[in-house]
Amino acid sequence: MDVVRTPDACFEDLSAFPFEPRYLMLPDGLRMHYVEDGPKDGPPVLLLHGQPTWSYLYRTVVPTLADQGLRAVAPDLIGFGRSDKPVSRAAYSVRAHTRWVQGLIAALDLRDITLVVQDWGGPVGLGTLTADPDRLARVVATNTALHTAEACRAGQLTWSCHELDDGNVAVEPMLLDYQRLTQELTPFRPSLFVQGATVTDLPDDVCAAYDAPFPSEAYCAGPRQLPLLMGLTPQSPCARHNRKVLDFLAADTRPFLTAFSDGDPGTRGWERVLQAEAAGAAGQPHCTIEGAGHFVQEDRGPALAQVIVAFAAGMRPR
């Protein structure tokens, strides 16, 4: 597999990111980066980012978790951040990302995990839950989507994606525009997507940190390919993957909490779907994080951290 690694020099002087880089080798020879803070014997919290971000997204979440005695682990998905980046787009699939995260969980021997998923972290992380459920204790889902394009999703989502009676699919144009922009934007700059989906004005040094992993087009196969994998038709591999996840959640009773923001039309409605269809969501203290866009960690990271701390301890989030 042809692989590139972003030079370490690209990550010098990152704003408010004091974590030492940590690496592990996955079974297929790829090197995955992660940050970790908190006691080694503390209850683990696995924080999964999506597209086009990396573990930097969790920089204001990790310290709060660590201060409360939790072992916070935030990996960079393969193709993102400091992790290895296969050059071929064919290397990337939801199934592959799920397998890579499984490799991290096994290598660190994480057990009794509180899994936190956002954006593409949802399909990837919840796919990990279905594949190796014994290691995970509970789930916090924030601003994520599990598109299946099924007809039953009609009227459930702000950004529609559902099959019609004639076999065609109704898809929100913004979803297609998002796909298009991820392919056409040259040079590829994740900061533009992050700034466009937050309510906070990002300073230049924060924008530079989001762009740091992708100094040239040679490093961009991962973030360019992932948006094309969305389950926008019922028979697409991702839609089938997501249906499998939802079927699993319908029978799984481990605690499942939604903590979506109030300012993300792209995933609005999925919190209600998950609350209704995940067996473990029944009776949980679901909450809405106010004053945040899609990237809730960027807008309201400490508030999300408090929700995670309370849920991991079995308490009602404030």
Molecular structure report:
This protein has 318 residues and is an alpha/beta fold. Helix content is 33%, strand content 17%. It has one domain: 3-Layer(aba) Sandwich (Rossmann fold). The protein contains 10 helices and 12 strands. The strands form 3 sheets. The chain has an 8-stranded mixed beta sheet, sandwiched between helices. Strands 1-6 form a two-stranded antiparallel ribbon. It has a two-stranded antiparallel ribbon with strand order 9-10. The longest helix has 17 residues, at 296-312. The radius of gyration is 18 Å and the shape is globular.
Write the layout of secondary structure elements.
Elements: E1 3-4, E2 22-25, E3 31-37, E4 44-48, H1 62-67, E5 71-75, E6 85-86, H2 94-108, E7 113-118, H3 121-131, E8 136-142, E9 161-163, E10 169-171, H4 173-184, H5 190-196, H6 204-211, H7 221-225, H8 237-251, E11 256-261, H9 270-277, E12 287-289, H10 296-312
Parallel strand pairs: 4-5, 4-7, 7-8, 8-11, 11-12
Antiparallel strand pairs: 1-6, 2-3, 3-5, 9-10
Helix pairs in contact: 2-3, 3-8, 5-6
